[in-house]
């Protein structure tokens, strides 16, 4: 009976050692895969999430500023067109004598 228990004890120790070895191999494989993946990602010249978010915020701010400037330009162009219309209207209502006085 004791020999049978020893046999099972030995099998349990071997199995336990095999499980430990497999766990070690698994950890080593995972580490190698991580290292390889890191090398590939570095070679791809990717940016970090923080850098991406910073540039995204800068682009959004630049777009807002551009839209504001476009609205300001449109308003200035409208004012310029109104001034041009007003001058034309004034010059057409003046008498020819008034024009000649100005030209002197």
Q: Please tell me the overall pLDDT.
A: 85
Shape: rod-shaped
Backbone CA Rg = 42 Å
User: What is the count of distinct domains?
Assistant: 2
Q: Report on the biggest sheet.
A: none
**What is the total tally of β strands?**
0
Q: Span from first to last CA? A: 135 Å
Instruction: Report the uncertain regions.
Output: none
H/E order of the elements? HHH
Q: Helical proportion?
A: over 70%
- What share of the residues does DSSP label as strand, in percent? under 5%
* Structural class label: mainly alpha
The helix tally amounts to: 3
Write a structural description:
The longest helix is centred in the last third of the chain and has 45 residues, at 49-93. The mean pLDDT is 85. This protein is mostly helical. It has helices at 2-43, 49-93, 96-103. The protein has three helices and no strands. It has two domains: 1-46; 47-92.
How do the strands and helices of this protein lay out in sequence?
Elements (H helix, E strand, L loop, with lengths): L1 H42 L5 H45 L2 H8 L1
In a few lines, what is going on in this structure?
With 104 residues, the chain is mostly helical. The protein is built from 3 helices and no strands.
């Amino acid at each position: 009976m004791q020999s049978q228990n020893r046999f099972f004890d030995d099998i349990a120790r071997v199995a336990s050692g095999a499980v430990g070895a497999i766990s070690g191999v698994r950890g080593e494989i995972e580490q190698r895969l991580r290292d390889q993946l890191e090398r590939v990602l570095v070679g791809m010249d990717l940016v970090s999430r923080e850098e991406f978010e910073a540039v995204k915020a800068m682009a959004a701010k630049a777009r807002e500023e551009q839209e504001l400037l476009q609205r300001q330009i449109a308003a200035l162009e409208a004012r310029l067109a109104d001034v041009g219309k007003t001058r034309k209207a004034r010059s057409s209502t003046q008498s020819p004598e008034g024009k000649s006085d100005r030209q002197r």
